[in-house]
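--- STAGE predict ---
source: upstream dedup step, 1 unique chain passed
mode: sequence only
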Amino acid sequence: MVIVRVVLALASIYRWTIQQPDVNNAFLHGDLSEDVYITIPPGVFVSGSSKCCKLHKSLYGLKQSNRKWYEKLFILLLSCGYQQAQADRSLFVKTANSDFTDLIVYVDDIILTDNSTTEMVCIKHVLHSNFHIKYLGILKYFLDIEVVHSEKGIHLCQRKYCLDLLRDSRLLGYKPCFTPMDNSLRQDDSELYTDVLSYQRLVGLLLYLITTRLDISFTTQQLSQFMSKPTRSHFVVAMRVLKYLKGCPGRGLFFPRDSQLQLTGFSDADWGICIDSRRFITCYCFFIESSLISWKINK
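--- STAGE serialize ---
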């Protein structure tokens, strides 16, 4: 998700074209190199009870389906002149003179950006010739992230994901809070929270929400330290985070088109704030300037 935010920030600044191809039945395109046999499917009548089927293509449900699909796409992109990024293996980049094209792959979801119409048409034709591709147009929704384009920039948010989380927690009718946490969390001796699985599930959903909600990242990180033995007070803090989200479900990241391309970083430490370990809590953050603007607003 980090590389997705970086690419979208660059696309906003340089006004790149952002397309979203969708692969139909992606796992069915993988070629099997091992011998895989399955029982006769129901409804197929053959003579003899000892016969079985040998697969030549991968199917949904096989453990190697994901790997075989990615392997076939990887070989195809390399043959077209794309290079795999060392920092993130899901990013493929192709440069030719002043033309630049990058492709991000997340299982069967693809983001395609470039500054050259010629290469965009070429890679679309190659993908459609080898797979069944449906083009969804300009990127608008990707992995529960809403992407809104305007003349001023690109806005990322998880509003629907946030509202679904509030609806599942039955907090849509509650009064919102203005801060995600009022004091620091610690390991206490209060009553243990009985439904540990629901607490773990809630923290897991919040961890994905911080993709665009940096204002709850610290609180969620603190809550994730008590996954094995959460107490009633920890659950109360988690509920407070949800009430805070109710007041601003559509908040997210904004990448202005007139932003300067520079890397900004800062470090902040609070000495001895952790009562349990008596260690300081430090935060290291690096942002492209366009996303740093949104972080200041959310904070």
